[in-house]
Structures
1.
Amino acid sequence: MSVSSSAGVDVPVELRHKILSVDEPLDSRIRALYALKQHHRNEQGAAVLLEAIRTTHSVLFQHEIIYNIGQFGFSSSLPGLVAVLRDKQFDVVSRHEAIEAIGAICSSAPTVTVVLEDTMRDATESAPIRESCELALARIRLAAAHSGDRDALQNRRTHFVSRDPAPALDDADVLAGKPQPPGTYDTQLLKMVMCNPQESLFRRYQAMFALRNRGDSESVAALCSALRDDKTSCLFRHEVAFVLGQLEHSESVEALAEALRDEQEHEMVRHESAEALGAIADPRFWDTLKQYASHPSQLVADSCQVALEMHTYWSQFRPAV
């Protein structure tokens, strides 16, 4: 028995059971999610993930599920994502991720854009939720300006394949038909844009992803500085930690560990910092991850537990220090 679909390979019943079973350990469910992501990136796989959201109280697992639904990119997922956005019983992190997933799918349908606009203007909503709506709407409008082609927003000069909340700044110039001469956006200029609270959050994200795409030591230093020095937006800082995890650059570990240890930092930033440390797998920070795996914040604790598994796996492929 399996989930039926007219397209793609059916999701095996054993894999479906592991993802949906409330009795399955969290680490096992997350491994099953990764297996589904690798082998069943189709509408039926997305449907299984949508069903899984309400089978767990783990904000980390909800976050991972919803992120991947957005990366799959099927418009059939939108009603379920909008339902998560509207349901304030979900944690801010899960609702943020639903908004970001909506932006990744890039539907300009009024039923989608109206709820994003209403939520963005709702003063009772937290800053991460309102800012997430701002970013999603900007991405949707940019795609609409290019005949709804969301793939036009994909990075052009990088190996990263993620559907990002904003295209890199230099890619955006290409989109607009106004490519700049080489060297127009040097690292210092990108850092200035990224760290300038007078810039729109979308443009700051564009500068951030341009720095990620460069990935050299100077760019990593700029990102690390933003992670620790920014005081404007925990949503922004959480994305900085995410891109540092994508880069897996050894020079970012101290800043990421500081963010994880910082009890004044928002848990969404600490969560991404923990997972980034797991991906980098520097043996000096195993004990840090181990220590925070029993943190009172369940999101921080779960993130460190997953990061320890990531650390164990990726250490096999890292040269000895």
2.
Amino acid sequence: MEMRNILYEHCSRVTSDDAAQSPSRWALAPLSHLYGFGMFARARLYAAGLLQQRALPVKVISIGNLSVGGTGKTPVVIAVANALRGKGRRVGVASRGYGRRAVQEILEVSNGRSRLSNPEQTGDEPLLIAERCPDVPVAVGADRYATGRYLLERFGIDTLVLDDGFQHLALKRDVDVVLLDATAALGNSSLLPRGRLRERLSALERASVILVTRADQAEDLAGVLKAIRRVAPALPLCVTTFNATALQKIGTPESQPPDVLKGERVVALSGIGNPDSFRRLLESLGAVVVDHCLFPDHHLYSVQDVRVVTQVAAKLRADRVVTTEKDAVKLQLLEDSTGQAAMWVVRIELTWLESWKEWERLVLQN
């Protein structure tokens, strides 16, 4: 509760770059080296066959990244699953369901027709995937092989999409898509806990294709792409952005075009891995962000949370509160709908700026 009070009283965010300059970051260097060695050794053991890697009799496409924080995996998973479904593939999505509290080893989030609606059991991202991919079965489980096997046996899938699967080496995959956010493509090139990287940059050698996201928000896109090319000169490189397609009032079918935000005073509300990107998206639509109420990634909202945010909006005379799709799947399920009735969610879609043909050939073809 103390963290929430701090967030309520002051919603401005210290950027990751500011945090990176903290002297304590250097003290974490030995731990980062130890962590990096462990991840490198683990990958080599799988590559040598000393750790077992199991295969499923279906095409497996992994969507993952090298860093912690939001690179946009969920909208990419949604785009891939829907594109494959549109090509007639029988697609299933397997996710770990980060932050879920259900005790089942495998939990079915959607059967392709009806969905569970409890983010505490499923995690927020699988619930959003199920909502945006209405014809695709979705299941969560820590063991991605077992979860994929469940989807295969229950629904007869011929293609499995792994949400956040790059480090899940126990399951063989046919395509490894690695996302790099153009606003912080290589982070500070330091491993956890000193930096944001889960693995060394050399791990990109396992990838099939690099997907650059949020290209429109990069200050120097050409420089970003050049830096990526230095690290991974031979990998196919696709460049994308996330476009706002609509504003939808939470809990209702009411929708407006995103350009209605132009000139409006809005309070942003988010509990995601990269909140700065959400603020930049709103500003790119012409919104005047008068405050940004931040919560931890995967935060499960309470009625009190909503009441405080709406009080902030009223105090600042904001025209509306705007939140993300990931947050909206949790907010819309609260029993007291008084606060979220005034909240709006930005719907986004993945858009290709470069290399669509190569992406289609590598990822979407049989």
3.
Amino acid sequence: MKIFALVAMLLCSTGLATAEDAAPRPAKAIKAGRPMRIVPAQAARIKTAPSGAVRDQGSKAPRDAASSADHSAAPAVAGSATPSDCQVRLAKLATFKPIPLLTGAGECGAADAVLLDTIILPDEAKVEVSPPATLRCTLAEAIADWVREDVAPAALKLGSALRGLDNFDSYECRTRNRVPGATLSEHGRANALDVRGFKLANGTAIELTDVNVAKDWRNGIRASACARFSTVLGPGSDGYHEQHVHVDLAERRSGNKMCEWDVREPVKQADSVPLPPDSVPLPRPRPLAANLSEDAHPRSVKTRPQ
């Protein structure tokens, strides 16, 4: 009997230790003066998550990190896996399509060019470039800054907001003024833009060479352009820029700038001077056709029969 009692005690003590290791009971469940209930040892109940859930938890942190990195990274530029620093800056000022390499005949072409569609003003309004201009990114950025900071505020003085830029010419593989044998134009390097004028929200078209547009306003646009660009050519420069204004970022060894744009006024007709009352008026001049030869105008000159 003693042997059986000893074996029973050993089994109970072993089962107790195993049950406590697997599932410890709270201390409050044990009360003094009351016999302890001994339960058989049981396998610990462990809730095992599905394998897929474990993988999701393991990949959650990297995905969140990537997501936060996307928000803090530079704006993505459509069509270019690695936008240039200029394109990253330009993406905050305009909408465009990147042209990684622009090639043409001879020395024509440029690296890091873009097709400039619209310029975004500080109030999020858009200024359409019509037609879209093919430019080096650096020139596109300079154009966007000029429009945002100078032209748009000036347009408000004319009574309406700025909504369009009239692009007369941008990239074109040609010589200066299309003169055969002349030096390559900055247009051939996508480093120049010819601006005809601007369009306002009320439908008004403002041409920079229109003498009927307020002279003070045109003077202000001229001063801002000459301060920002290396070359500004308009009326009075060389006879090729009477209907538009050329701007570029040409690099010169001297670092000098060229600003040739005459802001003209309407031509005033001379006032007629009244003749003295006793003066005799001169005869009217003969028509030009009467002074021409018979070969030039055979029907306008009468000849005697031979």
4.
Amino acid sequence: MAERADDLLIKALRELTEEYHRATSNYPPMHSYHEGISVIEEEYDELWDEIKLKPSKRDPKRLREEAKQVAAMALRFMIDLT
């Protein structure tokens, strides 16, 4: 069971790394804490919008994509601003 959890973690970290690199190649660094939190909030709101859908309308792939974007922007906040 631990091996499966490790495999899922490795896959998630690989996806997060790819999303981080995509974002850094398409957008300039965050310039302030206010900008950083605004970007994170925007991504969070998109994830929340997906969560609020009726269960029959939720798309697990879209939920994963939005969660990945939240995590990547939090990572970017750490790297760009701290």
